[in-house]
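S.,

Sequence below, as promised.
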Amino acid sequence: MPSLDLHPVFRNNRDIELALRQFLFKVHQSGRPVAEIIPGKGTGRLRERVLAFLGQKHIRRLYDRVEVDRDNTGRVVVHFTRR
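The prediction came back faster than expected:
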């Protein structure tokens, strides 16, 4: 499963959005059904940023659903649309 760890870029909003955008488009193009984004647990602010990014209309078209792992809230799983 493709994975994006946001720990190294968590302080810069522009870098976070760029990393997310590049990762999501790359995984979508590859046809992989599932990918994970790791914002980490921390205060939950980075996870909320990730979820807000994923909720944007133009990004929402890329995938079917998003879930926050129940056992690990520092992990967001994205399920992509099958072609």
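Residues 42 and 74 are 8 Å apart (CA to CA).

Coffee later?
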